[in-house]
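Cross-posted from the bioinformatics board.
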Amino acid sequence: MTEHAVHLSGVTKSFGEHTAVSDFDLEIPRGTILGLLGPNGSGKTTTIRMIMAILLPDRGTVELLGGFPDFARRNRVGYLPEERGVYEKMKVLEQLVFLGELRGMTRQIVRRRAMEWLERLGLEEWANKKVQQLSKGMQQKVQFIGTVLHDPDLLILDEPFSGLDPINQDVLESIVREQHEKGTTILFSTHLMDQAERLCERVCLISRSQKVLDGNLKALKRRERTGAVAIEFEGDDGWLARLGIMNPTKVDDTYHIEAGRGVEPERLLAAAVAERVMLRRFELMEPSLHEIFVRHAGQPDPEPALAVAGGAR
Amino acid sequence: MRQVWVVLRREYIERVKTKGFIIATIAMPVLMIGLIGLSAFLSIQAERADRDLALVDLTGQLGESVAAGMQAVGYDIELVDRDVDLQEMDRRVNEDEIEAYILLDDLTLQEGTFAYRGKEAPGTVRRALFENVVVETVLELRLSFAGSAEGLRGLLAGGRLSFESLGEERSELERVSGMATGFAGAFLLYFTMLFYGAYVLRSVLDEKRNRVVEVVVSSISPWRLMLGKILGVGSMGLTQVGIWVGCAALIGLLGVPMIAANWPAVDVGELSQLLPGPGPLGLLLVFFLLGYFLYSSLFAAVGAMCSTEEEAQQAQFPVMMLLIIPFILQMTSIEGSGLPWMDWAALFPFFSPIMMYPRAVVGAVPWWMVGTSLVLMAAALIGTAWVAGRIYRVGILMQGKRPTLRELVRWIRQA
C-alpha cells in the first residue's frame, strides 16, 4: 500500500493552442477527502480525466492507487463524470447490473448490492422502470449508485452536487461522509466553496489551468488568517475609539475589527483587559475559502450568489 | 473477454426486446410478400376494369372465333352485325355504353392489323392478348385453306432453345437456382450490411450523445467496447435473418407437399432443386460475417466522429456510397457475370460481398478469385478495424464540431 491514492507530478495537457492543465502536482493521501476547487473551465475535469486515464497527459506522470492507471486499478475507482450519462431506455436495475458486471462483479452480487442501495435512496420501486421515466434528480442518484456499487477504494466525483435540490444534496453529502468514514479516499471537484468548506479535509485550488494552493483545509485557513478579530462585549464601545478604531463594522452584537486598522489582536485584548471590558467573545477570524480563493486567484465564480443559493449552474 | 461479453449481451438484449426489432422482424417478410401481392393484385384489378367491348367484323369470316378467343381470356365481347353504322358505334363509346370496339377489316385478313377504337388506349396486357388472338385466328383461317393447320400449331407457339452444356456439368435448373440464390444473396447482403451497420452507428452515437460512454470507458478499453457493440448488433442481425430463413424454410417444408397434392403436374423434385444448397448458404454466411464486420467498423468510426444525428447523416455518406456502387453494378449484371472488368472490381474488398458472392454461386469466376477476395476482405477488415478503433477511441469523448480530414489523420496517428 502506497501512501497516496493519487499522485500527479508535472502533469501538462493541451488541446491545440489551449493549455487545459499546466505543470500540475497533486498528492491525495489515502483516506482523505480532497476538494478540487476552481471556476468553470479552470481544468478540473481535464485533471480528473487524466487521473482516470481517459486522457493521457502530454507531459508528467499520473499514478493511481500506486501505479499506472490500468483497468485493474481503474476498476477500483468509483467515477462520476461531470457529464452525467445513463442508458435512458434501460431499466434502472439492469443498468446498475451492467455497470457492476463491467467492473468484474458477478451478477448475483451486483443485483443484491444494487437493490440495497436503491432501497437506501428510496428508489426501490423504480428498480424495474426505465431510466427515462425517472426525474433528473432520481437519475442522478442512480448514477451515484453506479459509482459506489462496487465498493471502490477511491471515489472521484466531478461536480457531484450540481443540479441536485438541497434535500438530495444533503443525502449525497451524508453518503460521501459515510464512505469517508469507511476509509474510502474521496476526490471531488466543485465550484461551490461553501460545500467544499463543509466536507473537505484537504483542498486544492486551481485557476486558469494552474494550481494556486493546496493542503489541509484547517492549516490553510490558519495560515491565511489576516489578523481580523470578532468581539462581543457588554457596555459601550468608547474604549475602541480610544484605541483609534472609529466606526467599527457591527453586525448584531458582534464587532468586526479588520486587519487594516493597525491594531493587532494582542493589543486589542490587552486594552480590553485594561479597560475592564466584559468580554463575551473574542475570536481570531479565519477567512472563508471563498475569500482565500479571491485573494489568490480573483473571483472564483462569476455568479457566487446564485451558486450559494442552490448550486444551479 | 468477459467485458466484451457483458457489452455484447447488453447490446443484444436491449435491441432484441425492443418493439422496433419485433416489428421489423415480422414486418419485413410481410411487407415483401404484401408488396408483391399488392402489385400483382393491382395490375389484375386495373385490367379487369371496363371489359365491356364490342366487335365489328367487316370481313364476316373472323368475328366469331376472335370473339370466342377474347371471351376465353376474360373479356365481355358483344359481336355486332357487320351492317352497323360506325358512327353509331362511336356514339356508344362516347356515351360510355361500351369501353371501346374492335374493327376487323380486309387488312386484318391480309396482314393482321386491326383497329381498337376507344377513348383510352388499351393497356399493354390487353394489347398483347388481343393481338395474339387476332393473329392466331387469321393464321388458322389462312392455314386451313392450305389444308394442314394442326401440325403448324407448335411452330406458331414459337420456337424454344434448349441449352446443351459442353463445359462443366451444370443443368439448366442448377443455373437458374444459382442465379436466383446469387441475386437474392447479394440483395440480402446489401440490406443487412446497410441496416445493421446503421444500427452500430446509432448505438455509438447514442452512447456518445447521452454521455454514458465516459463511465463505460473508464472500466473497459474503447477497443473492447467497440468489439462488444459490433458483435452484439451482429448477433441481433443473425437472429433476425435466422428467423426469416427459418420461416422461409417452414413455408417451403409445408408448401412443397401442398403443391404436390394440389398440382400433380408440377415436378416437386425439380422444384426443390431450385432451392439453394448448404454450400451457397454457408458461403453467404462467410460473406455476411466479413462484410458486416468491415462495414460496421466503418459505421462505428463515423458514429464516433459525430455529435448529432444530422452530422452523422452527412458523415455516413461515403460509407453508403461504398455499398451503393457495387449494388448498382450488380444490378446491371443479374446473371452474375456482366462485363469482364466487373469480375476484377468484385475483388475490391468493400465491393466483394455484394459482387463476388453472386459470381461465386453462379460459377462465373474461377475459385481462386473467390478465395483471393475472401483473403483480401479479411486483410481489409484488420486494417479497417485498426483505423476505426483509433478514430473511435479519440472520437467518443469529443464533443462539438466534427473533425476535418486532417484532424482525423492526427487522431489515427496519436491514439
